[in-house]
Amino acid sequence: MRQSKLLMSTLREVPAEAEARSHQWMLRGGYIRQAASGIYSFLPLGYKVLRKIECIIREEMDAAGAQELHMPAMQPAELWKASGRYELYGPELMRMHDRHEREFALGPTHEEVVVSIARQEISSYRQLPVNVYQIQTKFRDERRPRFGLLRGREFLMKDAYSFDRDWEGLDVVYRQMFAAYERIFQRMGLEFRAVEADSGAIGGQGETHEFMALAEIGEDTVVSCSACSYAANLERAGFRVKACASDAKADPEQHAEEAALEPEQVYTPGIKTITELADFLVVPPVKIIKTLIYEADGQLVAVLVRGDREVNEVKVKNDLQAEHVALASPETVLAVTGAEMGFAGPAGLVLPILADKEVAEMTAAVAGANLLDTHVRGIVPGIHFSLEQTGDFRNAEPGDKCLLCGSELEFHRGIELGHVFKLGTKYSAALDATFVDQDGQQKPFVMGCYGIGVSRVMAAVAEQSITEERLIWPLSIAPFHVHIIPISMKDDAQRELSEQLYVQMTQAGIDVLLDDREERAGVKFKDADLAGAPMVIIVGRGAGDQEVEWLGREGVKESITSIEALERAVLAVKGLAAMAPERK
């Protein structure tokens, strides 16, 4: 490609609305342009990257035995109502009516549609297993689109769906897809972790894993062991519970003495936060019980954690087997506790109580009194309130130990790239999608679901590929493998050598960008930093002697011959071809 013909409008200033580095550089480099909040156009440079990402995904999906199809973005609402997700998905589901007042949804995902296809097309066990995928635009009405392509309302996604006779068959496909995802992200040069995860709105009846790109801008927290292979997202992360030494019930006599004492009410005017309470009463947060009132599918429940901990709402939801869990409103808290938020406590509370394991080990704790401006000292779990429902209801935190080996847990920020689910019969049973098995019985399909956020992957790779001065794409998805920059197109020797290299590399199957513009060298170099080619060839004063400057990913310039530059580029691109899977 000749740069004089490329639609690449670069920006020198960082756009004010762009928070993430990937967003800033892709706007500055002319990869994307915003059409509306959370909705972007991909300009030629950005679309080249996107297509190369798609190519890698297609190669690995095909090699894993998946077949590509294409499903409609506009989906009949009755399918979503039949699966039970129409109301569950909430306001993120974009809904619409046609001129005949028939209701539709713009698909954020395609479980319902693909099950309706399987219901029509697959009737016998002899047709199984089947694994299909598509790469298609999806829609979610995000409350707060942010970070450019990382959280948008319209985005490109690869979604795959497998259909099997039984769980054993699903296990095989799940492992195949898991391995395919690892190859996909490795080929894109990403630093990532596969972590145990929660199934969220997709649901399911088996294990699920997320693939996370490690990046400080990530909205998710990856919890991993410093010694073994354990890794999970924060929503799912488990740990070994170790009670605080000051609260452990290690001394039965002391515990009995404390239990015999009557709790003492303390006037705490205007004290609502744990920090304020700890300072006011001169007690550490580990001696305080935090009581939060939640609404779970219309039912109220109290969740107790230690004062220095945070409630994990996903763990609460899973323990209650609820669809929706959210903090109760201030009005509801006042109605059920008799006091404003900040003064709720477990003693005398007429609600189901979910107590975190650490709370169960506390003695002589401080808690809310269910009275305005009042707390209580000397609350003893199991004595002054029930401990019928205990469990792990808090987030993992620094200092916690690995559930498997007991080593220290580490915490990193991450960007979710993809998610693989074992759905089981959740959707096939709801939509009456069955096949005739070998025994002649009608049985629901056992399903898996496998998604990759294609446009999000592009942003994640960019986030990891930005140095202080340059955006350097991995060779596998770079818009151009090589960027040839003659210092002056008016210089005959420079122009001729640049043209020669351009022709030779193009004929060798290398994606080349030739900066044939009559611009100042500084402008060319600034634009090259944004164009992101991992191999840059600068043609300057040594052109007459067939010498060029080579700039690779490491950022070190070398003076080499044009022949060696050609050989290096050819070798690098041949290495890419070797990474692609063989067709079966």
Automatic annotation (TrEMBL):
Task: Provide one Gene Ontology cellular component.
Answer: cytosol
Q: Pfam families, from UniProt?
A: HGTP_anticodon, tRNA-synt_2b, tRNA_edit
Cite the Aminoacyl-transfer RNA synthetases class-II family profile domain residue spans from the record: 33-474
Q: In which domain of life is the source organism classified? A: Bacteria
Q: Per the record, what are the reactions this protein catalyses?
A: tRNA(Pro) + L-proline + ATP = L-prolyl-tRNA(Pro) + AMP + diphosphate
Keywords per UniProt:
Aminoacyl-tRNA synthetase, ATP-binding, Cytoplasm, Ligase, Nucleotide-binding, Protein biosynthesis
Instruction: Quote the InterPro entries the UniProt record gives.
Output: aa-tRNA-synt_IIb, aa-tRNA-synth_II, aa-tRNA-synth_II/BPL/LPL, Anticodon-bd, Anticodon-bd_dom_sf, Pro-tRNA-ligase_IIa, Pro-tRNA-synth_IIa_bac-type, Pro-tRNA-Synthase_IIa_type1
| Gene Ontology MF, one | aminoacyl-tRNA deacylase activity
Annotated CDD domains: ProRS-INS, ProRS_anticodon_short, ProRS_core_prok
Q: What class of enzyme is it?
A: ligase
Q: Where in the cell is it found?
A: Cytoplasm
Nucleotide-binding as UniProt keyword: yes
What this chain does, per the entry, is described as: Catalyzes the attachment of proline to tRNA(Pro) in a two-step reaction: proline is first activated by ATP to form Pro-AMP and then transferred to the acceptor end of tRNA(Pro). As ProRS can inadvertently accommodate and process non-cognate amino acids such as alanine and cysteine, to avoid such errors it has two additional distinct editing activities against alanine. One activity is designated as 'pretransfer' editing and involves the tRNA(Pro)-independent hydrolysis of activated Ala-AMP.
Q: Which PANTHER family match?
A: MITOCHONDRIAL RIBOSOME PROTEIN L39/PROLYL-TRNA LIGASE FAMILY MEMBER (PTHR42753), PROLINE--TRNA LIGASE (PTHR42753:SF2)
Q: How does the annotation summarize its subunit structure?
A: Homodimer.
Family label: Belongs to the class-II aminoacyl-tRNA synthetase family. ProS type 1 subfamily.
Output this protein's name: Proline--tRNA ligase
Query: Which species expresses this protein natively?
Result: Paenibacillus algicola
What gene, per UniProt, encodes this protein? Answer: proS
